């Protein structure tokens, strides 16, 4: 399957420009109903704000946006472009603006909404959705850090560890790199360590 990126969780940001306060919120969603429910929640929470601009995009669904009273093209589309450029989908973003009494102009608004959306996404972090091979790797305590570095070098992630006389690392490796990784670990250990396949899954893993 082709990999794609989604927010790793919820993210928030705050930005002040000429006394206008911009509050950014990003959430992962799986449907339009979820996205619209979050937008409604933010509008209710920040009912006293001048603007609650929003956008959402779904991998297998539509893209929608609203400037919510800001000049056309200065809020919703710039926010949407942030996520297109970052290659992230299945999310909703709401940026709330409390007007500070000073007009920012189209350029100022464009920059403020872009920054708020990007900062909220950065706060949320990113996960990659793809097919993963689950491995169990027996490892000595002395070799633990080296093994973790090798997992990262092959685009994998540590999914957990069990401690005993030695460490048993649970790792997720990209489907197309799992066998090369297993060969690498076998070679590094002089043939004494075999990374055992315990399953496979399609899921979001933080990167």
What do you see in this structure?
The relative contact order is 0.18. α2 (76-86) packs across α3. The protein is built from five helices and ten strands; from the N terminus they run βββαββαβαβαββαβ. By secondary structure, it is α+β, with helices and mostly antiparallel strands.
Q: Find the CATH topology of the largest domain.
A: Ribosomal Protein S5, domain 2
| Structural class assignment | alpha+beta
Proportion of beta-strand residues: 35-45%
Instruction: List the uncertain runs.
Output: none
Largest sheet: 5 strands, antiparallel
CATH homology-level superfamily of the largest domain: Impact, N-terminal domain
Radius of gyration equals: 22 Å
- Please indicate the count of domains: 2
Number of DSSP E strands:
10
Distance between the termini: 18 Å
Percentage of residues in helical conformation: 25-40%
Globally, the shape reads elongated
Q: How many helices?
A: 5
Average pLDDT confidence is 95
Element-by-element helix/strand order? EEEHEEHEHEHEEHE
Quaternary assembly? single chain
CATH hierarchy: architecture of the largest domain: 2-Layer Sandwich
Helices and strands, with pairings:
Layout: E1 4-7, E2 11-17, E3 20-28, H1 32-45, E4 51-57, E5 63-66, H2 76-86, E6 91-98, H3 105-124, E7 126-139, H4 144-153, E8 157-163, E9 167-174, H5 178-188, E10 196-206
Antiparallel strand pairs: 1-7, 2-3, 3-6, 4-5, 4-6, 7-9, 7-10, 8-9
Helix pairs in contact: 2-3
């Amino acid at each position: 399957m082709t990999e794609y990126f989604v927010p790793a969780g919820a993210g928030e940001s705050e930005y002040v420009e000429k006394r206008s306060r911009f509050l950014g919120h990003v959430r992962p969603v799986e449907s339009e109903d979820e996205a619209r429910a979050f937008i409604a929640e933010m509008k209710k929470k920040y009912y006293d704000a001048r603007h609650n601009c929003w956008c959402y995009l779904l991998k297998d669904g539509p893209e929608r946006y609203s400037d919510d009273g800001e000049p056309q093209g200065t809020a919703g589309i710039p926010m949407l472009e942030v996520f297109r450029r970052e290659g992230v989908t299945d999310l909703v973003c709401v940026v709330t603006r409390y007007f500070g009494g000073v007009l920012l102009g189209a350029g100022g608004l464009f920059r403020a909404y872009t920054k708020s959306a990007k900062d909220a996404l950065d706060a949320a972090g990113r996960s990659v959705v793809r097919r993963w091979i689950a491995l169990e790797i027996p490892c000595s305590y002395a070799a633990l850090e080296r093994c973790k570095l090798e997992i990262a070098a092959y685009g994998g992630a540590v999914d957990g560890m069990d401690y005993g006389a030695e460490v048993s690392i649970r790792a997720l490796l990209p489907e197309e790199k799992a066998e090369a990784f297993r060969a690498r670990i076998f070679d590094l250990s002089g043939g004494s360590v075999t990374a055992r396949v315990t399953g496979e899954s399609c899921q979001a893993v933080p990167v």
